Amino acid sequence: MSDVERNKQIVLDYYQTAFGGEPEEAVARYVGDRYVQHNPMAADGTEAFIGFVKWLRSENPELRLDIKRVVAEGDIVVTHANLVLKPGEPGQALADFFRVEDGKVIEHWDVIQDIPATSANNNSMF
């Protein structure tokens, strides 16, 4: 398996484990000695990440994260996903960028967009 393919698998496992309800396990297995956060609404560090995921899941116990695609180049892995907080709602489109170093996630950026009820075109956001 190439480094790029390994990085993609690390990010997928990390993201799915965390949002599947096990953020502590995700951090223990897949995060390095630092976690740099570029979302201005989130603090750096793993404790902040764990707290956010726990809070989000406590507010939305039926939360579902559906990763639609994964793209990687070098040490950067990008996921495009649909985050649905409550069944029946369209949710949000997420573009998450992760940097992987020595087999561990160490940095994160994201772009989040609500999925609107109507669209000016017939294309899906996914």
From TrEMBL:
InterPro entries: Cyclase_SnoaL-like (IPR009959), NTF2-like_dom_sf (IPR032710), SnoaL-like (IPR037401)
Alphabetical GO biological process terms: polyketide metabolic process
Domain SnoaL-like: 12-108
Coiled-coil intervals: none
Annotated Pfam families: SnoaL_2
Protein name per the record: SnoaL-like domain-containing protein
Organism: Kribbella antibiotica
